[in-house]
Specification:
This protein has 292 residues and is mainly alpha-helical. The chain has helices spanning 2-22, 33-41, 48-59, 68-85, 102-106, 108-127, 133-147, 152-161, 169-194, 199-226, 229-232, 238-241, 247-270, 278-288, and strands at residues 95-96, 99-100. The protein is built from 14 helices and two strands. Strands 1-2 form a two-stranded antiparallel ribbon. Strand 1 and strand 2 (99-100) form a beta hairpin. The radius of gyration is 18 Å and the shape is globular. The two termini are 22 Å apart.
């Protein structure tokens, strides 16, 4: 079964990579802007968010390929956030996915513009879906809420404000629910929207994705302590250097491991009522055990 899901993940990823490679291929090239956008967008990575969109569409009875524009839009928003997170004014990281970050290669100004352009292009991508207009409108609302001040950007603001401070668990959970969890939740909900899912299905999908997103972040905090730069493809120990509170500082490694297990079980329970939840359960378990 695991091999089947691994193969399916690879097939989903291939569809996503093909779609992303076409996004700016026919556009006019303005200075090095499009090159900078593609440098980060086409750098690979796990593509967890867009895969979650495709597979949640399947889970809710839809055609995953119909959700492909939604999936690519989510990944474009995620990529923009990585470019901006790496900037000197934010995390000041020099390595991402095993190679120099966008601003190191293209300069800060172009990196900012590349992120801005990816964010706006993401919503254009959503409008290209061959789906009923009301689903596209709903998808735009869902992704914009997740990406803005009530979601990812709000979480980043809390993250920056929390540097050098000791955050309690509730403060930390709010920060990460916004910064990381909101976009992961949106990715899953977009798949349900594309499939024309029911409100009950969307609620279950949201519960699943919120548990998945929190477990993902807890594991990420653990890897920043126990992994290596060669494994992760980015600097380790940066949270400590930037004096950021993390789940590890709040709970310790053993407490984090226990929380990841609890959240993974919660994610599995959320999708248990679907006809074929096996992929989503497998995905939650595999992300909980990831080493990079």
């Amino acid at each position: 079964m695991e091999n089947n899901f691994t193969d399916r993940t690879a097939q989903d990823r291939a569809l996503i990579e093909e779609c992303l490679a076409r996004v700016f291929a026919a556009e006019a090239r303005h200075a090095d802007l499009q090159e900078a956008m593609e440098y980060s967008l086409l750098a690979g990575g796990k593509r967890i968010r867009p895969i979650l969109t495709l597979e949640t569409c399947r889970l809710c009875g839809g055609d995953p390929e119909a959700a492909l524009p939604f999936a690519c839009g989510v990944e474009m928003v995620h990529t923009y956030s990585l470019i901006h997170d790496d900037l000197p004014a934010m995390d000041n990281d020099g390595l991402r996915r095993g190679r120099p970050t966008n601003h190191i290669v293209y300069g800060e100004a172009t990196a900012i513009l590349a992120g801005d352009a990816l964010l706006t292009a993401a919503f254009e991508q959503l409008t290209r879906a061959h789906l009923p207009a009301e689903r596209i409108v709903e998808a735009v609302g869902c992704l914009s809420r997740a990406a803005g001040s009530a979601g990812m950007v709000g979480g980043q603001a809390l993250d920056m404000a929390g540097e050098g401070k000791t955050l309690g668990r509730e403060e930390l959970e709010l920060l990460q629910r916004l910064k990381t969890g909101a976009l992961i939740s949106s990715a899953a909900e977009l798949g349900c929207i594309a499939a024309g899912g029911t409100p009950e299905q969307r609620a279950r999908v949201r519960d699943y994705a919120q548990a998945l997103g929190q477990a993902f972040q807890v594991r990420d905090d653990m890897l920043d302590v126990i992994s290596s730069q060669s494994e992760l493809g980015k600097p380790v120990g940066s949270d400590r250097v930037n004096e950021k509170s993390t789940y590890v500082t709040a709970l310790g490694l053993e407490g984090c491991a226990a929380l990841v297990e609890e959240l993974t079980r919660r994610a599995a329970r959320a999708v248990d009522g679907f006809a074929q939840p096996e992929f989503h359960i497998w995905l939650a378990k595999s992300l909980a055990q990831r080493t990079k």
